[in-house]
Design a protein that fits this description.
This protein is α/β, with parallel strands linked by helices. The protein is built from 9 helices and 7 strands; from the N terminus they run H-H-H-E-E-H-E-H-E-H-E-H-E-H-E-H. The longest helix is centred in the N-terminal third of the chain and has 17 residues. The chain starts with 5 loop residues before the first helix and ends with a helix.
Length: 206
Amino acid sequence: MNFPSKLIEQAVTEFSRLPGIGEKTALRLVLHLMKQPKEKVEDLGHALIDMRNNIRFCKDCYNIAEEELCQVCLSHSRNKEQVCVVESIREVIAIENTGVYMGLYHVLGGLISPVDGIGPEQLQIASLINRIQQKGIKEVIMAVNPNMEGDTTIFYISKKLKELPVTITSIARGVAFGGELEYTDDLTLARSLTQRLPYENFLINR
């Protein structure tokens, strides 16, 4: 693609590095920004820089935070004896949007996938077990994507928690096998959370 300016080409190149943004879409975004007042474009730039420089991860659950702890962990209205284990921050956002879950979270940062070279040591599994042991957690809700990697991760964690006095549940499989929680509609996700089953039942029914 030919560009009338090196500055536009540079901006298009940077936008097209974003997931799901091709060169043509990047060009449309750049041309749109060119039409905006300078102050609005500067506000966008400052917001992105502030986010990148100041965002951090909660020391307890690894959710996005602006301080040492995230807003969920700091809230006095959350059930501190219940932890929902998720793959990434995207699932935290999806579950929070349902408005039905009032416990805590634990973000693994991925799923066990030997094919991709991802083992338990690359994920926040040890910190989860330590948290359960020290924080008086009574229920662990496994809310990872229903695919092979998700099932492998659930199985591994359940084995590690076998000797601890904690109930392990899995969200009801209203979510299709191989589906992504991020793209599941709010109603289906909410029902999966409220109708969760003991993980042992899931193993029996497989």
